[in-house]
């Protein structure tokens, strides 16, 4: 799907404004570093910049997204635009050397060549040193774009040779509006927008029946917790474990449970605009009356501890969830 300047302007206005000025003045850096969380538009921006530089029918600084060059960049087939990705767990020296050899040749269709290195922080030491030499002696017309979610893992010498653009997390409300435009129900859209900052992942979740059912199960679990330990434990066996099977799914389920407590805390603090389960506002207000802020915070800590145990040990999911249920009840959050 083609990405347009107008779309990225909504999510990364500062980055787009600065790059727009650079393009308008014809002052293109030989190396850029786009850093920020996953899903904040770094890859989309890099491809959009590439299209702005190679587009055959540019309108001002904006690419047409329809000409042969724009289409080939979208499909990864432009001979003067190269994308380097990790080979397995890392980007190896041989990949950078092959890139250097390719860029030693004349550009095929213009006087410019551009390369994008995804997950630049995953370069081996030898690969990073090879790239550093490449950045120190850039060839005329060469543009490098490095993408990273782990800015602190890059060599300072590489960072110093790039123009750095920081991509900010996309506000959940803005992402939820985008999902609503894609016909995702509002209550699902808002939840998905808090689970991930990625457009693609949020849209996938919004359209996934599994996610909608996960939301329902988590809300039911909270209802069971208010009644008695035994009923909640039975519910874990009958509903939770069959639905949340993979570790990533369990972790997500715990996040959804955590959001219920966050919502109750927001209600007690008078921050209704931050509520995620907005279609459950009446229930949340009643639940929030039954406990103190201290109890809510304590319950949130218990859930976070369960998430930590899940991600650091091979603990049985059944034992993990049973212990969490008992901990939450022992905390006397419900009255």
UniProtKB/TrEMBL annotation:
Q: Which reaction does it catalyse?
A: DNA(n) + a 2'-deoxyribonucleoside 5'-triphosphate = DNA(n+1) + diphosphate
Under the heading InterPro entries, the entry gives:
DNA_pol_HolB, DNA_pol_III_delta_C, DNA_Rep/Repair_Clamp_Loader, P-loop_NTPase
Question: Which top-level group of life is the source organism from?
Answer: Bacteria
**Top EC class for this record:** transferase
The cellular component terms of Gene Ontology attached to this UniProt record, alphabetical and capped at eight, are: DNA polymerase III complex
Q: Does the keyword Phosphoprotein apply?
A: no
Which terms are listed as keywords in the entry? DNA replication, DNA-directed DNA polymerase, Nucleotidyltransferase, Transferase
Q: Report the residue ranges that make up the DNA polymerase III delta subunit C-terminal domain in this protein.
A: 247-329
GO biological-process terms attached to the record:
DNA-templated DNA replication
Q: What is its EC number?
A: 2.7.7.7
Q: Name one GO molecular function term.
A: 3'-5' exonuclease activity
Name of the protein described by the UniProt record? DNA polymerase III subunit delta'
Organism encoding this protein: Parageobacillus toebii NBRC 107807
